[in-house]
């Protein structure tokens, strides 16, 4: 009987331990991503399940005798949770260490980024976390990372300014990362060098990276092969997507990524369907080109934000990025025009 009891007790302990580890693994979902710019500035995103993150930070507040959060009669609402996490930015900052060339580098700013809304397509709950910004010297050569909050393995990704990327898997939350290479990516760039780099980034965002943009533009082109019709639509689209890009980059205008992406897909469907129904440029088409153009601009702003612009040179980088987008657009229109001329010549030769 005693033997059976010991076996049962052992199985129970194993089950509880396994269950606890599984819960921890499911709750943490930690992701860490560094993005460096040429001037040594960086953006660090640390994301977790927001409810788990709040629970962990509150435990540190309690241990350190800090001020607890407002009393709650039940589970906090998402807004209450996010407000409390914003208030705990300094507690979070004390739980991380960025170690560069033998000394600690502290973040110059930190903000809480709440999770986006959950959708039926999400396999896991969207993550929230903190975005930190800082700067390392242009001669920085190596970095190690420590995050004293988690117990499970998680990835640390470093996107270098020269386009290379490194990923390190941390074995446990109490371990340091391996030494990650920073050397050779930093340089003080002139305005002309920044402009050249960002023209290329803007161009690549459309060709080959902007299928929705290209298809929408071709839809505008194919309504009617008439210079005035094409010019009016393209002019409206340029004004709209450029305005959306600049306003979104300045924080004046924003669209959730999912909404902006859906609007871009809808814009392609719209021009394709209308091209089959009408052959004249209607007033409502120009109005919709302006609306859809803002969504395309918001998508472009997300891509621009994904590349850390050199400190103090954001306007130069954004102007060059926009110029690269327009250069790609001219490439698409030029190729479409050549294709139309070739098709017309082929048909003429056969008739």
Structure description:
With 351 residues, this protein is of the alpha+beta class. The protein folds into two domains: 28-181, no CATH class; 191-350, no CATH class. The protein has helices spanning 2-28, 50-63, 78-87, 89-93, 191-206, 211-222, 227-249, 257-277, 283-305, 314-350; strands at 31-36, 41-48, 96-100, 103-104, 109-113, 128-135, 142-147, 154-159, 165-170, 180-181. Strands 5-6-2-1-8-9 form a six-stranded mixed beta sheet. A four-stranded antiparallel beta sheet has the order 4-3-7-10, with no helix packed on it. A hairpin with a 5-residue loop joins strand 8 (154-159) and strand 9. Helix 8 packs antiparallel against helix 9 (283-305). The protein is elongated and about 85 Å long. The model is unreliable at 1-27 (pLDDT under 50).
- Oligomeric state as shown: single chain
The largest sheet is:
6 strands, mixed
In what range is the share of β-strand residues? 15-25%
**How far apart are the first and last residues' alpha carbons, in Å?**
99 Å
Q: Rounded to an integer, what's the Rg over CA atoms?
A: 26 Å
List the helices and strands and how they pair.
Layout: H1 2-28, E1 31-36, E2 41-48, H2 50-63, H3 78-87, H4 89-93, E3 96-100, E4 103-104, E5 109-113, E6 128-135, E7 142-147, E8 154-159, E9 165-170, E10 180-181, H5 191-206, H6 211-222, H7 227-249, H8 257-277, H9 283-305, H10 314-350
Parallel strand pairs: 1-8
Antiparallel strand pairs: 1-2, 2-6, 3-4, 3-7, 5-6, 7-10, 8-9
Helix pairs in contact: 2-3, 5-10, 6-7, 6-8, 6-10, 7-9, 8-9
């Amino acid at each position: 009987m005693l033997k059976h009891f010991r076996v049962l007790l052992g199985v129970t302990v194993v089950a509880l331990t396994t269950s606890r580890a599984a819960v921890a693994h499911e709750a943490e979902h930690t992701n860490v991503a560094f993005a460096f710019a040429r001037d040594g500035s960086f953006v660090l995103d640390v994301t977790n399940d927001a409810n788990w993150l709040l629970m962990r930070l509150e435990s540190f507040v309690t241990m350190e005798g800090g001020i607890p959060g407002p009393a709650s009669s039940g589970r906090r609402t998402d807004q209450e949770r996010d407000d409390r996490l914003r208030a705990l930015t300094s507690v979070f900052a004390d739980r991380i260490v960025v170690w560069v060339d033998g000394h600690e580098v502290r973040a110059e700013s930190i903000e809480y980024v709440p999770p986006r809304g959950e959708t039926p397509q999400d396999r896991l709950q969207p993550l929230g976390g903190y975005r930190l910004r800082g700067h390392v010297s242009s001669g920085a050569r190596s970095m190690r990372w420590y995050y004293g909050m988690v117990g499970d393995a998680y990835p640390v990704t470093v996107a270098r300014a020269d386009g290379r990327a490194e990923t390190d898997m941390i074995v446990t939350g109490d371990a340091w990362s391996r030494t990650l290479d920073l050397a050779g990516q930093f340089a003080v760039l002139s305005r002309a060098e920044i402009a050249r780099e960002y023209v290329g980034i803007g161009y690549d965002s459309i060709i080959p990276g902007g299928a929705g943009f290209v298809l929408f533009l071709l839809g505008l082109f194919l309504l009617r092969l008439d210079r005035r019709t094409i010019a009016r639509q393209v002019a409206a689209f340029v004004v709209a997507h450029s305005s959306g890009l600049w306003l979104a980059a300045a924080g004046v205008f924003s669209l959730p990524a999912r909404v902006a992406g859906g609007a871009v897909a809808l814009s392609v469907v719209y021009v394709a369907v209308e091209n089959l129904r009408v052959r004249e440029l209607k007033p409502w088409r120009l109005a919709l080109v302006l609306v859809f153009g803002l969504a395309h601009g918001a998508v472009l702003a997300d891509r621009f934000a994904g590349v850390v612009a050199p400190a103090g040179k954001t306007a130069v980088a954004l102007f060059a990025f926009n110029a690269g987008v327009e250069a790609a657009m001219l490439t698409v229109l030029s190729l479409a025009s050549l294709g139309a001329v070739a098709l017309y010549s082929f048909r003429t030769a056969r008739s």
